[in-house]
Amino acid sequence: MPKKILIVDDEPDILDILKYVLEKEGFKVRKAKNGEEAIERAYDEKPDLILLDIMMPKKDGIEVCRQLRNDKKFNETFIVFLTARNEEYSEVAGFDVGADDYVVKPIKPRSLISRINSLFLRKRYKTEDNETITFDDLLIDLTRMKVFVKKKEIFLTKKEFDILLLLSSKPEKVFSRNSIYHKVWGDATIVGERTLDVHIRKIREKIGEKYISTIKGMGYSFTY
Predict the structure, then answer these.
(1) DSSP alpha helices (H): ranges in the chain?
(2) How far apart are CA 84 and CA 116, in angstroms?
(3) Could you tell me what percentage of the chain is helix, strand and coil, using 3-state DSSP and rounding each to the nearest 5?
(4) pLDDT tens, position by position, 143-187
């Protein structure tokens, strides 16, 4: 079955161009022109991925993302922000509410397709492993891509999950910042300097401080 993508933008030209480009790649595409319509379409269509503009009428993209991320129905849905704003604080705000990626306009179609395919491939490879990893009161379920602390499910975005899985794959090993960016975001993706710091902070807030150590001047490691 083709992957379903919902495009949300208040500019009709962008909606039409992206719909054309994505359908040529074999995706099933739906459109929404504002935040309220985006939420309605998301519940109707259950998309695999949402391309979400930030600056929109009725509800902005940040609020739409926050609302969807608070509903477990969308735990497996990728959310990628599209925006004309390239300030670092805007990017940080997007990742804070659970975005998986952040694309600055003007959009380069080939680069966008590459990033979308990378997200879908990462999801497929992660779910092929039928196993769980346990560290004290932390359990990582690789099959369902879920995390539990003291048997309580903790919601992580896909990027947060990927970072945690990478670090926990080799406890005590120090992963440099560059190696984490390479393995989690890929070489084709350009992200802000503070993006990794934001993700690490969010993971610590959710699973506790003790599992991820900062190695000054080097990177991060998983400890337990």
Answers:
(1) 12-24, 35-45, 61-69, 88-96, 109-128, 158-168, 177-180, 195-207
(2) 19
(3) 45, 20, 35
(4) 778 899 998 999 998 889 999 999 988 888 889 988 898 888 876
Q: Which domain holds residue 118?
A: 4-124
Tokens of 71: 């509903």
- In this prediction, the residues of the chain whose per-residue pLDDT falls under 50 are 124-130
Judge if 153 and 102 occupy the same domain: no
Same domain, 77 and 159: no
Report pTM: 0.63
> Could you give the number of structural domains in the chain?
2
Distance of CA 174 to the CA centre of its chain: 23
Alpha carbons 102 and 85: distance in angstroms, whole number: 10
User: Which percentage of the chain shows pLDDT scores above 90?
Assistant: 46
25: domain CATH number is: 3.40.50.2300
Residues 111, 154 share a domain:
no
Domain termination residue (choose one: 91, 124, 157): 124
Show the tokens assigned to 87: 């300030």
Amino acid at 93: A
Q: State whether 10 and 87 are in the same domain.
A: yes
Quote the CA–CA distance of 84 and 100 in Å, as a whole number.
Answer: 17
The DSSP letter of residue 158 is: H
